[in-house]
Amino acid sequence: MKEGSSIRILIADDDADDRMLIADAFEEANLSNPIDFVVDGLDLLDYLNRHGKYEELKDQDLPGIILLDLNMPRMDGRAALAEIRKIPAFQTIPIVALTTSKSEEDILQAYNLGVNSFITKPVTFDGLVHVVRLLSKYWIENVQLPKTQQ
Amino acid sequence: MQNKTAMHDLFATAELELAQNYRSLIDDLNVGIAIYGSNGHLLCVNQSYYDLHCISTNDVTIGMTMFEVIEQTVQSKKFGNYDASKVHKMVKDTFENGEAFRIELLDKNERKLRISRHLKPNKMVVETVEHLAADTTLNNFSQDPNLKHAPSLTMEELTAALNRTPDGFGLYSPDGQLLAYNKNYVTLNPDIAHAIRIGARHADIIAAVYDGGKVEMNGQTREDYLAYAKKERLEPSGATAHRNADGKWVRFSAHRLDNGCTIFNVADITQLKHHELLTRDLSQQAATQEVQLHYALANMSQGLAMYNERQEVLVWNDRYIKMTGVDPAIMKKGTPRIDILRNSIERGHYSKEKAAETLKRYEENGFTSKESVYLHHLADGRIIEVHNRPVSNNYTIVTMSDVTQREHDTARLAKYTRNLERSNAELQDFAYVASHDLQEPLRKIEAFGDRLAKKYGDTLPEDGSMYLNRMQNASSRMRQLINDLLTYSRLTNKTRPFNPVDLNDIVKGALSDLHVRLEETSGKVETKGLGIIDGDAVQLRQLFQNLISNALKFHKPDEAPIIHVNGEAITLEDSFGQPIAIHRIKVSDNGIGFDRRFKDQIFAIFKRLHGRMEYEGTGIGLSTCRKIVDQHFGTIEADGEEGVGSTFSIDIPVKYAGEDNQ
Question: CB B446 to CB A123 under 8 A?
Fold first, then answer.
């Protein structure tokens, strides 16, 4: 188990503004964890499998948590989720759906596909900072997870 | 052999066709009548016959022989002894030898009856039974049924006997002097009663008839008439009938006797004449009806034809020929329907695409005898609706109506409705999608605005902070607008099934959402009489939340808002005049009110009656209220007075009547 502060956070979001705001929120919350970004489902799978442009990350640890947007081009969050949960090595990575949707249908589907939490993107930046703090407190500082293996 | 003669026809017609009317007249006669065919079987009998014989209708029935009938009728009579062989002989005599039979006897109630039978020239026998007045004494000769031929009678005796017959008799000498006459000879000639006396000359009596002017002479001169009457006396040629001034119809017939005398017989034929006239009336009526029917058919705007069970045409009108386009020359009684269709198609009356298909269908399946309605498309673009109606005897009535205009209108209306529905749906979708997609960039504007304020707010010059502030206010207003628009458009996008909803719970729920505002304004909400209605709980909660929050918002600056939410069960009439149970809810406040002029505009979307600086709001709240009430098939009205308050009155049906009734 690594120190909480060194856990790598992976953010999958196609929206550059949102990627920036989430990163800002981490900064605002005084969390200094390393953050990586991917822009859609295929990009996310490449990252986890160390394919293509992510080949050089071979020796790097897998992310300790994935914040996943559901609506993305090429491969959306739901499809990516289904793929990730099929691979044993990735099954224990906590995945939090962080999306604009708050429809019952999306929430139920996401949990069925294996998200650990479902959070609607807060409307205000303060709200986003609050969410990031909660996530960090829970998933990074408190929850015990089995060690992930490369 | 049975001659179809007038009498038989008359009764046969009476039996078969004019049944009730005609029959009741015969039955009304106080003379019993039984008519036997030439084969001796009973053809017709009236009610008086049964009554006078004191027998029931089961005792004597149509088809029995005369012998059997007599057997039945003697049961009720006072006879010393009944001799069947004598009756047989009497029947035989009547039919074969034409012997007239007349007997007067007593029935078991001691009433006097006269029974007579006559062989008519057509070989039928008419039997009459009549009741004689109690004071009539029976002659010796007629009391004895065995006595068929009376001994020589004196003229007085004969006259006395003849006085009892219903007919009138007058006996004239060869040179035309009246020798004897009976009572009814005068009764049945009332117009010349004064001229009738023993010894009067026939020519004088006839002259009295002519001079009396009561008898229709058809333009004959006095001389002609006298000559005609004389000739009739000397060489009787048959019967004549006329109507007396008293309204009675009489028939005259004359018979020349071997000794050169002539006996005139006058019979009252009023009843028979009435029947004859009635028959003529009925047939005239039928003829008139036929003309009227023909006229009605010819002037119908529809084509009409009747086909028999073999689908051969029996009746049709001109319009039918025009609408089928058939060659009028082939329209004959009995033309098969398929030939009419073929002919119409050959003449190019039907549109080419449909004709072959139609013909094939009928050639294979025939014409249905079931009720059916279908359309014919004609080559000239007209559309004809054909209606087959089965009627009795497996006949079919076919009507054709030109429905071109109706079909075009229906098609246009359907197209218009489809377009309207589509554009409505598009508009709904647009409002939803637009407001939904507007949320995304707005969230960014707000978020980056927040970042800017937080990170660099301190370092911005005063006017820079002011701009940023205004930007953030504007975006927050936009968020409210978008949220309200989403709520509004979701009202029609999402329809949930209606359930019984307790309005008390609904208002309670709305108040819990508003508790902060209630506290801020020290507002009070009082409810009374709220009931249960069918509806969508979420929408109804939104309705009350909007109305109450409006009332809280527009309170007077120096007065705490007091809001009354009152329910009342009432009954109104729906558009068909049927009573319908309604829950009427009034939400009234003591707020600033509004000018009555705006009571309708107030519900229009984005309509605001106040500046944004005075009262916040998007102008969508009351539009949403109206939409919710619409969705509940109700009505909402606003009333108010500036400086006094506002009242919103809502009528919603208690029971949801289902989509069909709306």
Answer: yes
